[in-house]
Amino acid sequence: MHRLDRIEGAARLPYSLKILLENLLRNEDGRLVTPDHVRALSGWRPTADPTTEVAFTPARVLMQDFTGVPCVVDLVAMRDAITILGGDTSRINPQVPTELVIDHSVVADVVARPDAFARNAELEFERNQERYQLLRWAQQAFTDVSVVPPDTGICHQVNLEHLARVVFTRAGPNGPEAYPDTLVGTDSHTPMVNGLGVLGWGVGGIEAEAAMLGQPLSMLVPQVLGLRLTGELPPGTTATDLVLTIAELLRRTGVVGKFVDLYGPGVASVPLANRATIGNMSPEYGATCAIFPIDTVTLDYLRLTGRPEHRIRLVEAYAKEQGLWHEPDHEPDYSQTLALDLGSVEPSIAGPTRPQDRIPLRVAPHAIAALLSGCTQTEALETGPNGVGPDGAGLDEAGGESFPASDPIAIDHDRTRDRPTPSCACPGSHDWPHHPVELTLGGERVSIDNGDVVIAAITSCTNTSNPSVMIAAGLLAKKAVERGLARKPWVKTSLAPGSRVVTDYYERAGLTPYLDALGFNLVGYGCTTCIGNSGPLLPAVSAAVTEGDLTVCAVLSGNRNFEGRIHAECRMNFLASPPLVVAYALTGSLHADLLNDPLGTGSDGNPVFLRDIWPSSEEITAVVDDCVRAEMFTRGYADVFAGDERWRGLLTPETDTFAWDPTSTYVRNPPYFEGMGREPEPLRDVTGARVLLKLGDSVTTDHISPAGAIAVDSPAGVYLREHGVARGSFNSYGSRRGNHEVMIRGTFANTRLRNQLAPGTEGGWTRDFTRGGAVATIFDAATSYAAAGTPLVVLAGAEYGSGSSRDWAAKGTALLGVRAVVAESFERIHRSNLIGMGVLPLQLPDGVSIDSLGLTGEECIDITGVTALQDTIPATVHVRAGEVELDARLRIDTPGEAEYYRHGGILRYVLRQLIDGEQA
């Protein structure tokens, strides 16, 4: 054990930095990790801007299949490339345990039927057999690679419930070693495992590949915010309400790129599942991670999930010996501290396009009407007389956060009637546009309108890993059915748990029949609606939405609700707890006032209110205690890597290199190593570039990276049809991430993307100046520019690349020929991924925007000073766009990132390092 108490200054460090310090101590080799790194971290100054680079060596790598398939494809391509360069294929092999969970490929095509799960699983295998063969091959061709087959669970929930060690053990040079479990994952919600005290965060696939191959990840020692928790959640509130409150608070505070440590007396009252929910949504508030320390709650959860007793004793002993055990009265040094009284949390939803835009449930109908009538989010949440601002919070005298008193659904409901009537600060009324469209569903004549709910989905690891909120949803469904309520016929309902354990405790509690009765039949174990795998709307509903050009809504228990993510026909998407998802399925509309209006009329002819069927905390706890058992976890995960007959029956030749199928439309050899030599080419400035896209603020990786359904007339759809793929077999972009030809055609093709260079369009359109500025698809224009030898640039606003750690947002950008992105600011992961693909991230000076410079996107652009990167990292490079000239900040922040760029990207860098190591 590398003892932290021997390092001066270690005791004052936040929990997260103690783990990072141990990582440096254990991996110090005098080359990649030096004594200077250790001294720099132990002498960490809380309020200093991050300037010190250290090398983080994760104990393992976690992947899901959407991001895992391209990782495997890249490793296979590296094996081919190292052979061409005269190297040994065995050098291309994971050096740390790598765990891949197939969870992103199931689609909620079939719903509200007893056979929904079986049918969706069958469709999943039919669509993805080529991808699954690749992953089965990788499991036997690469050492230390474990694959959890499809229809098992969501990677983060499987990680939390089974894969996470908390304390790792291995044989060292001086005997057995114990050290903290750490990881990086190819999904931005990897920090879910932070709830167990495990340090980990999401990275792009290209960074994960480097970690798999034994390359430490270069990072700046971050600032750490301490969030002090006090009190307890009031009755009627859920973990979802808590995490939406925290997301709002921390996004407003500004924690992008920072670590968040949760501490204080309130930590002990936060169940492990709630901790995981908070950690899961770290990317929603911009933090690298949000971690809880190890305590008795951690140990109790390890027992509940069937971990062996000797492992639990090791975790306790190690944490206490290393100073990683939570001491409620101990306050480490933090860069900044905030306080949150858990008792102030109130029922909430978030939306319609950002997870940090929390809407208290008591004002939800007002906010929805305001949004539909054209108000901004800020205006919609103004409540005038009671002084609550757009975020529902204000600063207390001590500078911490104070929130308005809660209105728990189960108690003191009448107090909501005494609240001032919400009033909006915007001009005009909230007489939202009514455009009812009539349709026939199940023989019944109904109508849908703006603001109605067409998708209600219990989905995503964020909440399905939490027995309390899942049991609450089941109990609410039971009471609703017993009172004679039913879901509205236009609502597409689905249940997609994160592991089979959920259905086990539902069965034991007798809740499954009631969920089924409301249409929440099991559709699969995996990410469905939360990543856009929501499947089609009911045909008649889809036709009505198109006919009326309606703004309809999705309500889901997920973590993301960005434009175009959930479903192309849902313009407004709201995050909510699982029981509220059930409630909105009953009302069928976001206009419903769940706290005051009846959900419907019961079988006895009387109105039924939410307060009548909302389960009490005592009811939920009783069912959880009785029905969630350790043997469910041990039994459910006993053969987690085995898979069913379809998985075991896949043909996987035992070869060191993969046999590429030239006819495959799922898996193709990528072009990243074409023409690559043993030495990198000299760097060049960017001259004569044209603008491919001019974008506004908050363009997410969902806008950039191909995701969701493939439109038949899109460049990707045309490609598939040309290769003999029928429309019904298109599958999704995510499932075809192993085919760069499909993915490059879908980059920047999100239906909600607004390219200001092509005004009046929405989606993947731009102007092609090789053809006089004619409007063309982004892919076709990029192809024309490539033929002309013209480099490309993207212009963007603030928070460019926020959202999921999608490696294809960077890969597609690079393959389109983009050499640089000029933006007001970048989100952490995407900036790093751009560098990893050889694309320059350039940041405008403070207070300067693309619009303030007067740039239209029609200018020719030169970027000079790039060649200085050959030997150093210049602070700025010079940008000339038409008549405009300025120095832009070069956002290559560490020497490691500079090396990646000099080599043309991280993949080429790692390959050359492996060849050099072989020669040494």
TrEMBL record:
CDD domains: AcnA_IRP_Swivel (cd01580). Monomer. Its EC number is 4.2.1.99. Residues 52-588 form the Aconitase/3-isopropylmalate dehydratase large subunit alpha/beta/alpha domain. It catalyses: (2S,3R)-3-hydroxybutane-1,2,3-tricarboxylate = 2-methyl-cis-aconitate + H2O. InterPro entries: AcnA_IRP_Swivel, Acnase/IPM_dHydase_lsu_aba_1/3, Acoase/IPM_deHydtase_lsu_aba, Aconitase/3IPM_dehydase_swvl, Aconitase/IRP2, Aconitase_4Fe-4S_BS, Aconitase_4Fe-4S_dom, AconitaseA/IPMdHydase_ssu_swvl. Keywords: Iron, Iron-sulfur, Metal-binding. Pathway: Organic acid metabolism; propanoate degradation. Residues 718-846 form the Aconitase A/isopropylmalate dehydratase small subunit swivel domain. This is 2-methylisocitrate dehydratase. It is an enzyme of class 4 (lyase).
